[in-house]
Amino acid sequence: MRKKYLVLLYSIAIFIFIVLYLSLGKNKVYTTQENIGKKLAEVELNYFDKDGEFSTKELAKFKFTLLNFWASWCGPCRKEHKHLVELSKNSNLKIIGVNFKDEKKNALKFLSDMGDPFFILTKDPEGKKSINFGIYGIPETILIDNELKILKKYVGPINNKDVREINRIVNK
C-alpha cells in the first residue's frame, strides 16, 4: 500500500516538474505587434456625444487614420495629448478617439482644458469593445490605412519620435 502512495507521489512530482519546465520556454510578454499588416477587425463603437454607432468600416473613407485609446484619468494620456493635437493638423490623417472606461464629464473637461484633436470621438465605457483591437491598457494608438490595414501600433504614450514617424508614413 505504501509503495502505491510513493509511486503516485513521484508521478505527481514528475508531472509538476515537466509542466514547470515546459512553461519556462514560453514568451510571457503579451504583445499585439503580430497584428501589424493585418486588416482591422470590424467593430461598432458608440459615439461619445450623440446616439448611434461608428463602424470601423467607415475608416476606409480616410487616407490614414489614427485610432487613439485614452481616458481623462490616465496620466500618460495627458503626456501624449499635445502630440495628438500636433498630428491633428496633418490633412492626410484623421484621428479617432476612443474614450476608455471614463466619466463623460471628466473626458469633456480634459478635452476642454487640453484641446480636442479628434475628428470623431467614440466611447468604450466598459472597455469590452477595445479588446477587439488588441488593447489591454491605455494609452494605445493604432495607425491604419484606407484599406483598413494596421500599419503601426504604439503601446504607451506617443512621443516626438513617433510623431515624426507617423508624419513620414502619412505624407508619402
Essential attributes:
single chain, 172 residues, alpha/beta, Glutaredoxin, elongated
Could you provide a short overview of the structure?
This protein has 172 residues and is an alpha/beta fold. The protein has helices at residues 2-24, 75-87, 104-114, 160-170, and strands at 44-47, 53-55, 64-70, 93-100, 120-124, 140-145, 150-155.
Can you write the helix and strand succession as a string? HEEEHEHEEEH
Quote the CATH topology: Glutaredoxin
User: How many structural domains does the protein architecture include?
Assistant: 1
Give the strand order of the largest sheet, numbering strands 1, 2, ... along the chain.
2-1-5-4-3-6-7
CATH class: Alpha Beta
Annotation field: number of helices: 4
Low-pLDDT windows of residues: none
Structure description:
By secondary structure, the protein is α/β, with parallel strands linked by helices. It has one domain (38-170): Glutaredoxin, CATH 3.40.30. It is built from 4 helices and 7 strands; from the N terminus they run H-E-E-E-H-E-H-E-E-E-H. It has helices at residues 2-24, 75-87, 104-114, 160-170, and strands at 44-47, 53-55, 64-70, 93-100, 120-124, 140-145, 150-155. Strands 2-1-5-4-3-6-7 form a 7-stranded mixed β-sheet, with helices on one face. Strand 6 (140-145) and strand 7 (150-155) form a beta hairpin. Helix 2 (75-87) runs parallel beside helix 4. The longest helix has 23 residues, at 2-24. It is elongated. The mean pLDDT is 89.
